[in-house]
Every structure is written in C-alpha cells, then in structure tokens.
Amino acid sequence: MPCNRLLSILATSVAIVPLLYTASFAQDTEQDVEEVVVFGSRIVADDGVTSGIPIREFPQSVQVIDDELIAAQQARSLDEVLVNTPSATTGSGAFAIFPSFQYRLRGFAAEVFRDGQRQRFAVDAGIGALANIDQVQVLKGGSAANLGPGASAGSLGGIVNLVTKAPEPEFAANATLTGAFGAEQSYGGSIDVTGPTGLADGLNFRLVGDFERLDTFIDTFEVARQSVHASLSYAPGGRFRARFTGEFFDRDQQNELPLPINAIADGTIEVETFLGEPALPDAETQSLILTGRAEYDLAENWTSAAQLRFTTFDTSGTSAQFRGLDPVDPTFAQRRVRQFDEDDEEFSALFTIDGLFSTGPLTHALRAGFEYSRSLGFFDDAIGDLAPINIFEPSYGAVPGPLNPSFTGFFQEFDIVGIYIQDQIGLSERLKLLLGGRYDDVTEFSEFDFGLLADTQLNAFSPRAGVTYEATDWLTLFAGYTEGFEPQFIDANADGEAFDPLTSRQFEGGIKIALGSALTATASVFDIVRENGVVTDFNDPDGARIAVGEQESSGLEFELGWRPTPEWRLVLGYAYIDAEVTEDAPELLGNALPNIADHSASLFSEYTVPSGPLAGLSLNAQGRYVGERAGDLENTFVLPDYFTIDLGAAYSWDELVLRVSVENVTDERFFTFARQGGVFAGAPTLARVSLSTRF
C-alpha cells in the first residue's frame, strides 16, 4: 500500500510535466516578465525575504501561498497552510503550546518572521490567527546573510514569513462565520474592514478581528483563541510613506500530550485519548506586536526605510507531562506535572537603503542594512509528581504532588547587532550575479536568582552568492550558496562553557518558470550541512554534552501553481529529502534525522463552473502523502507513512460565499510527529463550513 500511494502521486506529477511543456509554448511570451505569480492568482509584493529582488531573479527557492488558496482550503492554522510546502514539517500540529519550535524546512529548523522581521515567540500565541494574513512566503535554506541568525526556534532550514494585510484606499468589508463538526466541534468568526479614514488624503485604516472556540478530536481538550489587528497607513503622494500596526493575540488551552509509541501498532489505543488532567489550569498565552514602518525616497532610484517593532509574549499554566510507559505495568503511562510562567519582551529596529545605479556596462541593485534587537526573558518553572494513568481507559482526577522549583528565577538577555550589504549585479540583460554578506555581533547574558549563569559574546560573518540566467522570457536557471547560524548559549559542555553556534551551508540549483497569471513552477536540488550539533557523550557516565555533530540533508523539491484554464487551478508539490547524521558518536552515525520523510507530496485541484445554472459552484480536492519517518535520533522506531484526502465545495452568489469541506474522508489513522518519547496523532474525519459576505 505505501508504494501504491507514492506511485499514484508521482504518476500524477509525471503526467503534468508534458502538459507544462506544451503550456509554456501556448502562452504569450511578450507578457511582462517582471510579474511573479503566487500559488493563488495575485502578484507578489517583496516584503523582506528576498531583500527587494523579484522572486524570479532570486537564486534561492521561495514559495508564496496567498490568502485565496488559504480560504479555499479552509486552513485554520499556519500548520495547515504549510501543507502546501512539500519540504515542511510542522510538528504535532496546531494544539502545541509552542508550535514554532517544531517547524522544519528541508530537515532543519525554520523560524517564523512577520513582514520581513523576526517575531520571536508571538506566532505561538497566534498560530490560528490567519484572518489578517495576506500571504505566506517560504524561503528555503539558511538566510543569515540578509535576515540574521536564528534567535529562537532557529533558521538553519529557512524562513516562514507572514505578510499581513495592509490598509486599502477604497472601502471594503468582509465578515465570516465558521464551524466544524465530526471529530472536532468548533465555531468562530472574523471581520475585516478597510478604507480611507476621511481625516487626511492618503490616510487609510484596516481593522481585523477573529475568534475560535474549538473542542478538538482529543478527549476533553479545548482551545479558545482570539486576536485583534489594527493598522494605519499614510501615503500622501510624495516621497514619504508610513504604516503603523498593532496586533494582540490571546490563546487558552491545555498542554497536548503524546500517545505512547505502541499506539502505532496497537489500534486499541484510541487517537482521541488524552493522558493529561482536564482539571489542571489552562496555559494562558498572550502576545502584543506593535510595528511602525516609514519609507522615504532619497532621490530617483534610492529609497530608505526604517521598521521598528516591540513584542511581548506571556504564558503561564500548569500541565501534565508524559514520561513514558510504566516498566512494571505498561498499561499505565508515567506522568509528572509542570507549573510554568514565562514573560518575554523584544525590541527590534531594522534600517535599509535600496538603490539602483550603473558602473559602465554593469547594473546594480544594492541593499544595505542595519539591524538591532534586544530580547528579555523571565522564566519560573516547578515540577511535581502526578499519578500514572491507564492508556486504554483513562480515569482523571489525580492530584499533583508538591511542586519543587526546577528552573526558577531565570533571566535571559539576548542582543543582536547586524550589518549587511547585498548587490545584484546585472552582467547582461539576462545574466545576474548576487553577492552579499552580513556581520553579526551576538551577546547573551543569563542568570538565576542564585547568581550568574553565562555572559557570552560571539561574532559571525554569513556570506551569500548566487547567479540567475533568464534562458527565455519564461524560464530562469539559478544556482546559489547561503549560510546560516544559530547561537547555542543555553547548552554548555562539562566545563560550563557555551558551545560554538550551529552553522549551516546550503548549495542549491534549479529552474524557475513564470508564465504570467497562468503558471509558476520551481524545481531545485539542494544540499545542506549543519555543523556543531550538540549530542550526549555516550562514553561519559554523567551524560556530558559534546559538540561533535554534523548532519546533512540533500534532495530535490518541486512546486507548481498552474491554471490550465481560467476556471481550473492546480497546486502541486513534491520533495525527496535524505537527511542523516554524517559525523557524530558511533552510535548515531548514518542515522536518519527524526520526523523527516524521504518522500512527501501534495496535490490540490479546484474547478469553478463558469456559466450556466451551476455558475458560481467550485469543487476542490486535496491529497497529501507523507512517507515513513524515523521517530527519534537513535532510530529505535518508525512513524508509518500516510495518505489523506480532503474534499471541498464552495458556492458564490451575489456577495455571499458558502464553503463546505470534509477532511480525511477515508478516516485514515495516522501519526504526524514524534516527541517527548511518544507520538502525536492526526485528526479523524471532520467537516468544516464557513459563510462569508462582503458589504
């Protein structure tokens, strides 16, 4: 069955290739080749991840997912949006308290940005807040040369950039009601209003709010979230433009616990099983993001910009934790209880200058920038005993034992000062060379109540180089080299010294196709090496940590967004990833990296009836295949492959749109991720419905 699943998807991919070839010559090649089409239907704005360079001319893979596709798929979280990215791994899903730590691209950690600037942990409070997202840009591979080091979840694998909706000069309003039933029960809604303020020419506003109340497929596990987004933009028609945005996120939920590993083979362990304690206080998470951006045209072809951001992230709660099966009676899971309180603040400033100029026959698109950020974190943790629970017939009501401080009075300050420059040099009309580099000075200071823990500083230079060649008006060849790095200040060796930062280097080459509004495609091969990985010394009885690891991820990736006709849309993705340990302790050498599938693929198709009595009706289907994955770094168990199918329909009349979808229509039992010595299950069959209106 696994082979049949994979072959069916690959066969679809192969069948499309000759159609692409035919379609490429059926298009008008005199179109404006500066357009870059997203996997929906609108033109991409830069917004930071490519540093002002059109995606077609950027020598690295970048995928863009727009709000039209997000709405058609009725995605309710960033995890579900990234289903369209074949090399993305999203972890245990939207129910994790800290989902951002689990994001992977091409086998390595990815970090979430917002409007081209890192947002630290704020995504963990607003993972389901998509009403204010215009598009999601996925930059694959290390990007420290222009976006800086990974400061939280890490960015060695790439960047996921959330582009928020901007105020518009014409009045528009949209309201949506949503619901779900079946394996999950939920209701929610959103409202989006934009237009001129009437106070001054060029002064426009946007106000977006949304909420959701979700009774998940996991027994007794509920989520309540809401968010508000307000923005003002000012563009009076001269050299100056500005925008200010304030966003607030609130999320309450329990901590999701994994199931024991034997749930993979033992179908009598229900995927709905909750091994925590429903009576424990929810984790309450709130985040505030204030962003101000100003742009000023210094002269013809020269623009300066400044973007300032202040972010807060506060979370606290008491949760159960899974500690493996009881060795004496494996029908019971061992547990403990954790009480936590975390408060974070970050201020960051980003300044850039962009210019176009020539030196003899060469053209230059130059960007120079300066970034400063300071993050402050305060942490208190306490651990207590919690009685085991029967994994087949859970009985709740256990009272936690006395709590003992385990990580209390901890303070961390994290500072980054970065300077970078990037130049896209036009060697000819079709051949362009990209050279760039960034120098970072990173400082970390941390202490407990009882005294200093660390005061460490490091410097790093991250280069970038790449070349693009426009072979035709619609076909571009590209090759690039990028580096990334991530500090490892928290971990320390046996002498208490901080480890050298994690570093990565990526080589990538491929082709990009852009045929106006009809087709975009990227096919690439890549090789990423991550160094200075930290592992446990198996020869040390005290389990000392040592930095000897090297891990490599290589493979190929293909993405396609195609409209064979104006009524029919296809979105296709496939990735092959070979990710393994290449240098480490002998016990791990050659092991596959956990949770990374060799093969993964997705296909989304939607058709809209253009005329007749069924005009306005759209039908869509999405299939996703994820191959087998190692469950841990020691490769002691395997997560089985799975294939899911979603079906949907929408009907539009006047200003109303009704959408209905059924997810996992075959009720596939599958597991998405392994962590904490256990596995996380995907949702059984459920239905979603939404009704939206414009006024």
Give a description of the structure.
With 695 residues, this protein is mainly β. Helices cover 6% and strands 57% of the residues. It is built from 5 helices and 35 strands. The strands form 4 sheets. It has a 22-stranded antiparallel β-barrel. The N terminus is likely disordered.
Write the topology of this structure.
Blueprint: H1 2-26, E1 62-66, H2 67-72, H3 78-81, E2 88-89, E3 104-105, E4 108-114, E5 117-118, H4 122-125, E6 133-140, H5 144-147, E7 158-164, E8 172-182, E9 185-196, E10 203-215, E11 222-234, E12 240-253, E13 259-260, E14 283-299, E15 302-325, E16 332-359, E17 362-390, E18 404-405, E19 410-426, E20 431-448, E21 451-470, E22 475-486, E23 502-515, E24 519-536, E25 545-565, E26 568-583, E27 599-608, E28 617-626, E29 629-630, E30 638-639, E31 642-653, E32 656-663, E33 671-675, E34 678-681, E35 686-694
Parallel strand pairs: 4-7
Antiparallel strand pairs: 1-6, 2-3, 3-4, 4-5, 6-7, 8-9, 8-35, 9-10, 10-11, 11-12, 12-14, 13-34, 14-15, 15-16, 16-17, 17-18, 17-19, 19-20, 20-21, 21-22, 22-23, 23-24, 24-25, 25-26, 26-27, 27-28, 28-31, 29-30, 31-32, 32-35, 33-34
